[in-house]
Fold each of these.
Amino acid sequence: MPVHNAEIAAAFDHLADLLEIEGANPFRIRAYRRAARTIEDLPRSVADMLAQGEDLSELPGIGADLAGKIAELVDTGHLAALEEEKGRMPPGLVELTNVPGIGPKRAWALFSKLKIRSIADLGKAAAAGKLRGIAGFGAKSEARLLDELKHRRQVQHRFRLDVAEDFAEPLLAHLKRAKGVTQAAVAGSFRRRKETVGDLDILVAARADTDVMQKFTSYDEVDEVVARGETRATVVLRSELQVDLRVVPQESYGAALHYFTGSKAHNIAIRKLGLKRGLKINEYGVFRGTKRVAGSTEASVYEQVGLPYIAPELREDRGEIAEAAAGRLPRLIELDDIRGDLHAHTRESDGKSTLREMAEAAKALGYEYLAITDHSRHATIARGLDARRLARQIKAIDKLNSQIEGIQILKSTEVDILADGTLDLPDSILAELDLVVCAIHYKFNLTEREQTERVIRAMDNRHFNIFAHPTGRLIEERPAYPIDLEKILKAAKERGCCMEVNAHPTRLDIDDHYCRLAKEMGVRIAIGTDAHSTDGLRFMKYGIGQARRGWLERKDVLNTRPWGELQKLIARP
Ligand code: DGT
Ligand code: CA
Ligand code: CA
């Protein structure tokens, strides 16, 4: 049974939660959390790494002890240390700490003094006025808590796209091996390449004698079968990811794929167009009266309403139907259009691979160029380069370029934008580089106006080419810092600066909405993976997904161009 990175991270987080409630050593707790983040952000499965005999203790924040625990999880599917902690505590305690105002210490006090072991217990105790005098609760905080519990909607957890993909791919492969299956795909927000998905929607076309339903509900990662019928079922995986399955006959596959890909708003708009033409459109096909007129392919559905095929990433009812009707759909960028990566780190700062390894990996991907963008001096924890070290790296790149065929390494940096809007490296060294990528890595707490002005001041520096991960958000982890991106885009346009779509699946920054705005405003986009190892270069596809959701075409993106052309495009006026 394969153990996924996200499950290992969840086990460590869970263990950290329990230790925190118990009041254990904070260093130990932090070590588990740090390991969870490291594992979660790895571009490869640790199970594969172990199978290939790699030493996990070389990963940042993973020592021999944690490496052993990871191996234990991969080998047995269990973590003894976690089971032991769980045995000591009721499962509801972790849930309690998710209530605003209840930290680990309070949760522990509520449990040990009042035997509160769930949110339901907590509600009852608060209503009965029993919390007063416990762990700093007074009448006021008790009332606030009651209010909180009343308004508490079950906030639904969403899965990052790459994490969902990690679960979806083996499951889809498993279903394709079932008897009588002719086609299968993951539909829903996953197919529309949204940055996060609420659940997976899998669609299968199969003959009547198929055993795919059986194969689905007995999949070894299934924790609970929520519903099971002849043609549909819902399960929850061990990872807590919910999966819906629909099985349809081959002749309905296109209509069903269209229906389950969504978005709901797009579907409704298409159905309305159908109604105007006297057509009924549902997941079984397109019908005129009782006669099926289309439905085996998605294109046939669109054809019936007089439209060309619309790519899933556009199906958000954001004007794509009108554009399709007018024959003005964008010709969306594709992964194959990419000629190089414009954001990558080496061991010189906080990457894992050497300059040569990164170059070879980019070449193996068929790239023509790769920009090395190690951090600058101010990023001390990332071992950022000062002017002297960067000068040395420039020499090393020149040397490598003269030795290696078929790929050009571009001299660059990911230079910090300092608090006052100056860049962290002197102009004299920036002038030596092929391009300059700039980013904010600290002082997120400025006001929107201050942050925006800081960046615009940085853009006034004529060496500023690309603004990397412009909002600083980390998906499902950290919101964007306040910044006026419209103003930034306008300033970028005036100065000839470009914006990055950071392709790392934890970032996807700028997002689809701002991609579209950038395009409308005539600001060019660079898609960069922010790779911290050779494997990290593979994140490009997530950036492409986001760019496609933002209606970007090949011509809108810098790194679809040969270097000679790109160089002219980024030259400041
Ligand atoms: P998610 O899971 O929250 O990330 O988003 P989706 O888009 O995957 O939504 P989901 O899983 O609820 O439903 C999958 C697709 O099924 C959705 O994109 C469109 C279709 N669908 C669901 N409910 C309805 C509905 O009431 N009407 C129509 N026309 N389509 C629906
Ligand atoms: Ca879904
Ligand atoms: Ca669903």
Amino acid sequence: MSKINAFEPRHDWTLAEVEALFDLPFMDLVHRAANVHRAWFDPSEIQLSQLLSVKTGGCAENCGYCSQSAHFKTGLKAEKLMDADDVVAKARAARDGGAQRFCMGAAWRELKDRDLPKLATMIAEVKALGMETCATLGMLTADQAKALKAAGLDYYNHNLDTGPDYYKDVVTTRTYQERLDTLSHVRDAGMSTCCGGIVGMGETRRDRAGLLHQLATLPAHPDSLPINGLVPVSGTPLGDKVLSEGKAIDSIEFVRTIAVARIVCPKSMVRLSAGREGMSRELQALCFMAGANSIFVGGKLLTTPLPDMDEDSRLFQDLDLKPMGSVRAEFVAAE
Ligand code: SAM
Ligand code: DTB
Ligand code: SF4
């Protein structure tokens, strides 16, 4: 059997198999994940995405981790949908800073048809900058997914967030099945999927395995697979729980989650997503070794901070990493 065949994607993972990966001795797990990573990717290349919150706060959903839910008092000021020109200016700056993909996020339960024309303009103009386009706008109908694709949208982000068993402890205003339905509309419209979840919300290892098992048994593995470390936001139920109990996810368990994601979805871009702010350089390096090959850059996620560009440039330089397919190659500052 060739090396590639041994690492061919599978869609028949069982939950028990995924749990067994988590239980491997750490060194064996990371070694195996690194081998899978190297079978499909150049391990020195990291894909860079930049986020912008194009519609902030006041969201009708009750996701227990989210600064933008209208159900919780987080002190965040709600804002209306940004003008396309302002979004494009931010995208141009992101591109000039080295980002390859620009992701527009809206604090909506679902996209409303009345907002489609403005979004279509935004998407088309960002694409015209030569960037990959991504959006995360809540639930979509099949027709809305087709309209976004026609406007030039390459990726749609819609997360499963956690395993099916823990889901009810995270959000009750949207079902797991509704998330799966939106993902299938996105695939049917011919867009690439960006789908992952959050760890560190008080879930068990079995729940983390449950999330990765769901992702690995989708009809198509996500093209991008974000693993978000919970950013604990004061005023949210899950953020407050972590802040009061001081129970952030153990960093070794976080690396295990990245490694298992790499093994079960070998060809996906595994994104070391939210939670990089406050992670040591060494922990980030371990995540890259374990198969993470995508990050958000630019100092800010949607409403919470990220390391600034200079810090990330230094990290890339020290780890001999380079941005994947960047429109601007000199992200890593010359000495
Ligand atoms: N409103 C849309 C939705 O939820 O479908 C899109 C925006 S929402 C903020 C995008 C994703 O960000 C969520 O699905 C969740 O996985 C992640 N996220 C939100 N708040 C987070 C936090 N405090 N820590 C980590 N990830 C978070
Ligand atoms: C994803 O999985 N993570 C990003 C993106 N998709 C939209 C969002 C992270 C948000 C973190 C909290 C915040 O900044 O509000
Ligand atoms: Fe709304 Fe998305 Fe936040 Fe949930 S995660 S409250 S849907 S913005």
